[in-house]
Design a protein that fits this description.
The protein is about 45% helix and about 5% strand. With about 160 residues, it is mainly alpha-helical.
């Protein structure tokens, strides 16, 4: 808890840095709910913090969320997009792994459509990015601003030496 200190059973903002990194826009409700979930069970002087004191601290940090908003977000069923994404992620991972991890989003999308899984290409791109999956690149050398790191990935030898 480097960004907050505990004072008499209450949390207060230290003001050294912000609780959430983006300064101009309000964080998404899901991010705030995850933050509250992470911190609501902390013990301070033998007492659990709970949701309402955390909401008060967030209010002082210009991140306003009401406790009722937190509880509404927790009880809300997942969206249709979230349900569909949960179904597609294992399929995308399977197609990617079956092809030795060389398929990019375009080929994974084509393979899923061949397997009678109707899915948009942008959805495959978004989910692959979220899962950290990418295809193999066609380029053989790295582009750098200095020549020290520009070695060929295939042979490892520097092309200017003999």
């Amino acid at each position: 808890m480097s960004e907050q200190s505990v004072d008499g059973g209450r949390m207060r903002s230290c003001g050294r840095r912000r609780l959430f990194p983006r300064q101009r826009t309000r964080p998404q409700t899901e991010v705030i709910v995850a933050y509250i979930d992470e911190h609501k069970d902390l013990l301070v002087d033998g007492l659990r913090l709970g949701v309402e004191p955390i909401c008060e601290v967030l209010r002082t940090a210009d991140v306003q969320i009401a406790p009722s908003t937190y509880y509404a977000a927790k009880s809300r069923p997942p969206s249709a997009r979230a349900v569909r994404d949960a179904e597609l992620v294992p399929l995308i991972g399977k197609v990617h792994n079956d092809n030795i991890g060389v398929f990019g989003a375009r080929k994974v999308w084509a393979e899923l459509n061949r397997q009678a899984q109707q899915v948009a290409r942008c959805t495959v791109e978004r989910l692959m990015k979220a899962e950290g999956l990418c295809g193999i690149r066609r380029e053989k050398t790295r582009r750098t601003t200095t020549s020290a790191g520009a070695v060929t990935q295939t042979d490892g030898a520097r092309p200017w030496t003999t």
